[in-house]
Amino acid sequence: MRVTLFTEYSFKVLLYLAGRDAALVTVEEVARECHMSKNHLVKVIQNLVHSDFVNSVRGKHGGIRLARAPELINLGDVARQTGMNLDEVDCFDTSGHDCPFVNDCKLKHVIRNARRSYMAIMDGYTLDAIL
Amino acid sequence: MRVTLFTEYSFKVLLYLAGRDAALVTVEEVARECHMSKNHLVKVIQNLVHSDFVNSVRGKHGGIRLARAPELINLGDVARQTGMNLDEVDCFDTSGHDCPFVNDCKLKHVIRNARRSYMAIMDGYTLDAIL
User: Fold this and answer.
1) Hey, which CATH number is domain B1-84, 1.10.10.10, 3.20.20.60, 1.10.630.10, 3.40.50.20?
2) Where are the domains of chain A?
3) Which of B35, B107, B118 is the closest to A11 by Cβ?
4) Could you report the per-residue pLDDT of B65-104, keeping only the tens digit for each?
5) Which residue in B120, B20, B129, B11 sits closest to B70, CA to CA?
6) A100 in Cβ contact with B11 (< 8 Å)
7) What pairs with residue B92 in β-bridges?
8) b vs e for A97-125, b when ≥16 Cβ sit within 10 Å of the residue's Cβ?
9) What is the CATH number of domain A5-130?
10) What pLDDT digit, counting tens, does each position of A24-56 carry?
11) Closest residue of chain B to A108, computed from CA coordinates
12) SS3 string of chain A?
């Protein structure tokens, strides 16, 4: 049960931008200050822009900034939009079709409930609460 | 946020043994019926024996069986004993010491709360509930 690096980087970018208020910030600045590789960061930012958490302004004096106030950015939404799909429980093992319990696996239901409970906590916070 | 393969295999072994009641079962049988490699399985079983979930009986007619009734095997305990350490939130990225937020990271507290909530659900079930 680990938060993925992609989700982690996304949270870091959002925290950094929140700390810079409405200022436009270059990707280079975020990469430098948050100690991330620019390659990694570009994909993270593309996804944050696509998910409407971040605005991107092109041009010489362009950059990125939060698209909404921190109190309108829900942590559960960020987790989901960055790949933490916690509602679905696949058979963990890719060879799950061989599992003798697959047809009536009650463990899945327990894990699904546990994950929902996890997300309910995340859903209870917005970005401003962790600044 | 994924259950590890080690935890998954552990649950499968416990479910299989619970289905065989108190019978002694060979490792070969579990490997065959649960479609696991014997190499993997040996480590999983060693850990289950060490954690007192499973008894191992040596000898020609030996084998393994549950060490306790299914209603005394808590799913949260199994998760913890098989490596799901959910109380601790390390910086996800191993280069976390470079993180500008590391000294006062409130995201950690949220994630710790979310993980505790996850485990509280697992702690609410025993093996008999998922048979």
Assistant:
1) 1.10.10.10
2) 5-130
3) B107
4) 999 999 999 999 999 998 775 555 555 544 555 677 777 7
5) B129
6) no
7) none
8) eebebeeebebbebbebbbebbbebbbeb
9) 1.10.10.10
10) 999 999 999 988 899 989 999 999 999 999 999
11) B130
12) CCCCHHHHHHHHHHHHHHHCCCCCECHHHHHHHCCCCHHHHHHHHHHHHHCCCEEEECCCCCEEEECCCHHHCEHHHHHHHCCCCCCCCCCCCCCHHHCCCHHHCHHHHHHHHHHHHHHHHHHCCEHHHHC
The SS3 of residue B60 is coil
Complex ipTM value? 0.85
Tokens of B124: 């609410």
Select from B94, B19, B80 the least CA-distant residue to A106. Answer: B19
Q: CA-CA distance, B115 to B107, in Å (whole number)?
A: 12
* Among B75, B84, B93, beta carbon nearest to A8: B93
- The residues in B 17-76 lying below 8 A from A, measured between CB atoms, are 33-35, 75
Q: Would you state the pLDDT for residue A105?
A: 82
Pairwise pLDDT comparison (A2 vs B107), residue with the higher score: B107
Cα gap A75→A3, rounded to integer Å: 13
For residue A4, CA distances in Å to A40, A113, B2, B100 come to 13, 20, 10, 18
Radius of gyration of chain A (CA): 18
- pLDDT of A58 higher than 90: yes
Check CB contact of B95 with chain A, cutoff 8 Å. yes
Helix (H, G, I), strand (E, B) or coil at B56: strand
Facing residue for A130 by CB, picked from B93, B106, B121: B106
